[in-house]
Design brief:
Layout: H1 2-18, H2 24-59
Length: about 60
């Protein structure tokens, strides 16, 4: 059991060394993209919600 835990930790450390971490510039770039798309989709769905609610009021 102890051997399995040690092997697991060793393999985890080995895998972490293979990871290509993002630079600060890349992280900022991806974050800004996510924020921009979130705002755009929120506005889009807000407009759709407004239009459908007006349609429902009109059809009553």
């Amino acid at each position: 059991m102890k051997e399995k835990i040690i092997n697991y930790i060793k393999s985890s450390v080995t895998e972490f060394k293979k990871v290509k971490w993002l630079t600060a510039k890349e992280t900022l770039n991806f974050t800004l993209h996510v924020i921009l798309f979130t705002i755009l989709f929120s506005v889009f769905y807000g407009i759709l919600d407004f239009l459908f609610s007006r349609l429902i009021i009109f059809l009553k």
